[in-house]
Structures are given as C-alpha cells and as structure tokens.
Specification:
Layout lengths: L5 E6 H4 L6 E6 L4 E7 H12 L2 E6 L7 H24 L8 E11 L6 E5 L3 E5 L4 E5 L4 E5 L3 E6 L2 E2 L6 E2 L5 E6 L3 E5 L4 E5 L4 E5 L3 E5 L5 E11 L6 H12 L3 H13 E3 L1
Helix pairs in contact: 2-5, 3-5
C-alpha cells in the first residue's frame, strides 16, 4: 500500500473513551482563558450526532488512536478557536455597523518657557449712597370764636322837674358777653429713613501676556465615531445578530472535526 492509503478503525462510539479533559479557549483581548466544554459534553455530542461513523487513519498513523487524532486537531486549530471565541466575547452594539476609533498625536519640541507680563491698570471706584430721611409733619387744626359784646342803646328824654324820662336823650347801654371756644386737633408726624447703599466698581485694565515653548510634548486626540450607516436597517442587523448567536462554538468545532476525520462505512 502507498503512504496515503488508509484503513478504518472501529466506530467512534467504541473508541472515544472516558478521560479528564476540558476544551479551552483564550480571549485574546483580555488574555483570559475559559473552559468551553468538558469531556462529558464532547463525548456525548460526538456519540449522539456521529456515533455511526468511524475514524480513519493513514498507514503512517496506524499507531494513533481516536484521542490522539482529536487532540492533534485541537492543537492545530487552537488559534482559530481563540480568534472565534474572542469575536464572540467582544462587546459591540448589534444595531451599529460602523465603529471607528481614531487617535491623532501632535508632538511639540523645544524649551518650555512661561513668561507672564502685565500691561494696563485696574481702576476701582466706589459710589457711596446717602441716608435719606423724609419727615411728614401733621397739621394742627384750631377753631377759635372770639368773644364779643351785644350792645343795645336806648335814648330817653325827661321833662323839667321830672324824674321820669321820655325817650330822647337818655342812653342806656347793656353788654352781654359771647363765649369764646377754641378747638385744637393734635398732629401726627411721620419720619422715613432710607439706609444708604454703597456700590463698588472695579474695571480691570490689566492684560496678561503668556508665551510657551515645549520640550518633547505630545498632544493626543482620540475620537470614536460609530452608528448605522449604509442601507442596512436596524431590523436586518438584529436578524443578523440572531443568526450569529444561534451558532454554538463548541458544536462548530466538533462538527468540523467529525467532517475532517470520520467517515461512514
């Protein structure tokens, strides 16, 4: 037989064995290794889906068994497994199809010097308020009725040798006083005092002159531009995300192994 001839071993179910083994993958972004599946899951999956298949080996590999073939396959594909696992574990927004990070750097060289000078003057003024007092004096009301006399004059004339007078020459005056009344209303004075208010005003006329020179200084700017661009709708992107999440990485690995190294009799 030639070097590339092969022969068929027994069915997988008879050669898979029971061992302590865990299929692992490394998240390359975080440099963290996680367990994807243990041997119980691996053997159950292969027996259930590919139990009627047999593993084949080339003549040069006649001393190898099923486990060697499986471990060799994992070792060969480990980097791809890690890359797939990293992509599955990477955070992203499923309804965005554009996610760009941009960093720009500007390097400045030279001597750093800070020179500060001032020009102009500051002016400060104060406006002093005044106390204001307002007096309102009440009025005095006084009503005075001056006294007066009522005078009545009567003239009488007497005949000769007679004590009786007839009205002509006798004058009688009677005086009757009139009462004097004075009424005074008290006044009310009001005083309002308004406190003064001082106002301080400062006008800044100084200017600062500042100049810089740099020594190996690098200014960096980072930008993050993301969103949904193009003609893909949000619903289509969600449907695509659902298709991705329905893929089981472990099953994908085992399916590839079975297709590469097993055959139907």
């Amino acid at each position: 037989m030639s070097k590339h001839d092969y022969y068929v071993l027994d069915d997988i179910i008879d050669n898979i064995g029971v061992i302590q083994y865990e299929l692992k993958a490394t998240n390359l972004e975080k440099n963290e290794t996680d367990t994807l599946a243990n041997w119980d899951y691996i053997s159950d999956y292969l027996i259930t889906k590919y139990g009627d298949r047999s593993i084949f080996l080339t003549v040069d590999e006649s001393i190898n068994n099923f486990l060697f073939k499986f471990f060799n396959y994992i070792a060969t594909r480990q980097h791809n497994i890690d890359m797939l696992y990293t992509s599955f574990m990477t955070y992203y927004n499923p309804v965005e199809n554009y996610n760009r990070y941009e960093t720009s750097e500007l390097t400045k060289n030279g001597k750093e010097l800070r020179a500060i000078g001032t020009t102009g003057t500051d002016t400060q003024s104060t406006d002093y308020g005044k106390n204001e007092t307002t007096n309102t004096y009440g009025a005095i009301k006084s009503n005075t009725l001056n006294g007066a006399t009522n005078q009545t004059t009567e003239s009488k004339i007497s005949a000769d040798n007679s004590d009786n007078y007839q009205p002509d020459n006798m004058t009688t005056t009677s005086m009757q006083p009139i009462n004097i009344n004075t009424t005074t209303d008290g006044r009310t004075d009001t005083t309002i005092i308004k406190q003064k208010t001082d106002t301080n005003t400062t006008t800044y006329g100084k200017k600062i002159n500042d100049s810089l020179e740099y020594i190996n200084r690098t200014d960096s700017t980072e930008s993050h531009i993301h969103g949904n661009i193009g003609v893909t709708t949000g619903a289509q992107m969600i449907q695509g995300e659902l298709s991705v999440r329905l893929v089981d990485l472990v099953n994908l690995i085992l399916d590839e192994f079975a297709k590469l190294y097993t055959i139907y009799l």
